[in-house]
Amino acid sequence: MTSIAQAVVTTDLPDRQGFHPTTRVRAGGAALIAGGALCIAGGTLHPIVDGRSHSVDALTAPLSPGAQVLLAVGTVLLILGLPVLHAWLSGRIGRLGSVGLVAYLLGNLVSAGAHLVVEVFVAHPLAADPATAGLIADDDSMLGTSAFGAVNGVGGVVMLAGMAAFGVGLLRSRIVPRWIGVLTTLGMLGFFLPIPATQFLSGFVYEAPRGVAVLALGVLMLRSPAGPSTR
């Protein structure tokens, strides 16, 4: 796996689709930069009304569903860019870091992706229609089902643990500035801080650390498409 990933990044020959590896890496880096920025913006703007972010009032607030769409597009870009990041790192972050990065990708797919799809395409239309607004759960979970709660819960844990392990791998490898490794390791701890749900503040605290970390990695990919070097 490592040799394949390294070959993807280091060879100067185009692949079967005609893309040079440096083009692929730069595209992946650009996706991470845009994805990180959009997640920060969407998370910061995500409506919170009376301490709830998924109530009928929040789902129909003026910034909804625009903020959620920003988050959704940002998440899609992260999902597209993370596999390219994995190849760009080409085994330099050890087994723990590599497994952590894959887990972070899967967590985004299962938890963030599914949550946002439901919020934008199901919960918002239901909340916007007075005839169906009563179907939105009163416990701020949108659907109020155990299955949906389990998907979000398990996916969230996988995403949290994966990003932390990925960050540890970055710190051990010393191939990126140390602050990026620290921010990646601690990137999702904001979700566990005992802060009240507050418009603009909560979403920024949740999304900014991991968004900045991913954005910074995307910048490094643009600057050095052949791969990172030990610092």
Automatic annotation (TrEMBL):
The chain crosses the membrane at residues 29-49, 69-89, 101-127, 147-171, 178-197. Keywords: Membrane, Transmembrane, Transmembrane helix. It comes from the Bacteria. The keyword Membrane applies. This is DUF4386 family protein. It comes from Williamsia serinedens.
